[in-house]
Write a structure and sequence with these properties.
By secondary structure, the protein is of the alpha/beta class. It has helices at residues 12-15, 29-38, 54-63, 65-69, 99-106, 119-139, 151-161, 190-194, 222-227, 232-238, and strands spanning 2-7, 47-50, 73-75, 144-149, 183-187, 203-208.
Length: 239
C-alpha cells in the first residue's frame, strides 16, 4: 500500500503565520491557485481520507474532483489539527508578550497548549485516526490512498512510522514540518497492516514536491521559535 500524506493548501491564517487549529477557515485565493498550478504533479489514488475541516475538504475537491464527486472519500475527525487553545488564531508576534507562550517556547514545544491539547494527546488522537485509515484501506483492498490533513497530523504520523531501511526512526516530530500542499509518501506491507502498524516498519519515501521540510500548519516556523528562543525578540524584529 502507498499512502500519500498531503497537507492542505494555504489559508489566510497560514499567510499571516497564525496558529490555525480549530479555526475552520477555507483556502485563500493563493492557496487555490497553488493547487491548480501543481495539480498535474499529484499522484493518482483510489480513495481519499480527509480531515473534515474546510481547508482539507477544499484541497481534496481541487486535487481529486472526480473522486470527491463520486463519493470515493472518507472523513475522519481524528485527523484534525491540534487545538492550540489560547494561541489559536494568533501569530508569534501577537503572542510575544504572553507568559504562557514564553513558557511553551522554553519547554521546546512540549508543554500542553493552555486551554488546548497536549502534544501527547494530539499525537495519540491522530495516530488512532491513521490506524483507522490503514485498516479501512486494507479492508477494501486499496493500494494507493491519499490522506489530506494538517501539518501537525502529518508530523505525528511521520514521527511514529517513518523508519530507515534498518528499522531505526528516520526523524523526530519537528523534522517533518511541511509546506502547504506538500507532503510525504509512506509504503506499508501486508504484514505491517496485520501487525496493527505497531512494528514501526512503515517506510517513508520522498516528500512530495520537494518540500524541504518547511513550516507546519498555521504557525511561523515553530522550530525556529524553539531553537532560537534566547533571541526570539530579535527574530520577530527581523521578520
Amino acid at each position: 500500500m502507498r499512502i500519500y500524506l498531503i497537507r492542505h493548501s494555504m489559508t489566510e491564517g497560514n499567510k499571516e503565520k497564525r496558529y490555525i487549529g480549530t479555526t475552520d477557515e477555507p483556502l485563500c485565493q493563493e492557496g487555490i491557485q497553488l493547487l491548480e498550478m501543481r495539480k498535474p504533479g499529484y499522484p493518482e489514488i483510489e480513495h481519499i481520507y480527509v480531515s473534515p475541516m474546510k481547508r482539507c475538504v477544499q484541497t481534496a475537491e481541487i486535487l481529486y474532483p472526480e473522486r470527491m464527486a463520486a463519493g470515493n472519500y472518507s472523513c475522519n475527525d481524528k485527523l484534525r489539527e491540534c487545538d492550540f487553545g489560547l494561541f489559536e488564531h494568533h501569530n508569534y508576534i501577537e503572542l510575544s508578550g504572553c507568559p504562557e507562550y514564553q513558557a511553551w517556547i522554553d519547554s521546546g514545544g512540549k508543554l500542553p497548549f493552555p486551554e488546548g491539547e497536549s502534544r501527547d494527546g494530539f499525537i495519540r488522537r491522530t495516530l488512532d485516526g491513521f490506524r483507522e485509515v490503514v485498516w479501512d484501506a486494507a479492508g477494501h483492498d486499496r493500494e494507493k490512498i491519499a490522506v489530506i490533513a494538517h501539518g501537525g497530523t502529518i508530523m505525528s504520523i511521520m514521527e511514529r512510522y517513518a523508519v530507515k531501511e534498518d528499522g531505526t526512526p528516520a526523524g523526530s516530530y519537528y523534522d517533518y514540518q511541511v509546506k502547504n500542499g506538500e507532503g510525504y509518501e509512506l509504503r506499508i506491507s501486508e504484514n505491517d497492516i496485520y501487525d496493527d502498524c505497531s512494528g514501526g516498519r512503515i517506510h517513508s519515501g520522498s516528500d512530495l514536491r520537494g518540500s524541504e521540510m518547511a513550516v507546519s500548519s498555521g504557525a511561523a516556523d515553530r522550530t525556529s521559535d524553539i531553537r532560537k528562543r534566547k533571541n526570539y525578540q530579535k527574530l520577530f524584529a527581523e521578520e
